[in-house]
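We treat protein structure as text, and this decision shapes the records that our systems exchange. The tokens are whole numbers drawn from a learned vocabulary of local backbone shapes. One such record is reproduced below, unchanged from the form in which we store it:
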Amino acid sequence: MIRVRSLTATVAGLLLAATVPLMSSAHPAAASDNGQSVRPAMGWSSWSFVRRTPTEAKIKAQADALVANGLKDHGFVYVNLDDFWQKCDSNGFVVDSYGRWTVDSAKFPSGIKALADYVHSKGLKFGFYVTPGIAKNAVLKNTPIEGTPYHAKDIADTSKTEKNYNCKNMYYIDYSKPGSQEFVNSWAEQFASWGVDYLKIDGVGSADIPDVQAWTPRPASSGSRSPSSSPTAAATPSGTAPARSPAATTRRRSTRSEGRAGT
């Protein structure tokens, strides 16, 4: 998918899908055959319009507009909250007691679940945003990993940092360590409990294949430790911009279009 600039006042920020042909048949692309993304996720993304200043009121207004303008009836059903929903300090993302990003309550005073509930009340779907890794603040505080005896320092590779476009300071996760998958699971389950339908995983590069795999839901019967109740996830190359929700969309790191510095 590619992000397109607004065309009119009423359809500003609509996400359109584009098919990118393979350059060579020697290295076919791999994809999860999980029934997700059979058709493009069509709708509105905050990064296409309000960028760094999303608020609860703005997201609700866009949900209202999709319905009022008749776009919902034509399949534009995703309202996707992109980056800048989080709270940051000098060390990066502020985290909760389990090392997960916290919501900026000044922008979203009712919380994300209430916002998702509002979007759902309009007959629409709610998309959300994350990047790979574990926050520096989680490691500094050595927060526990929910439901396990492990802690942030047990799974963080502090020798290198992930690509992140906002608060920065995200360490790689070492997926060979116990507790790593469980950390992702706890985050995915939190998003699912908030009502997230589609998850954008941003800043993904070749070194982040384990992250994409970790975020990919698998049936509980498969024996995998991957989350079984997460939203649809999508990974996207940097420079493209799909909407995401707990289905997961991933994005490769490169240059991000539309003026985001450092991408």
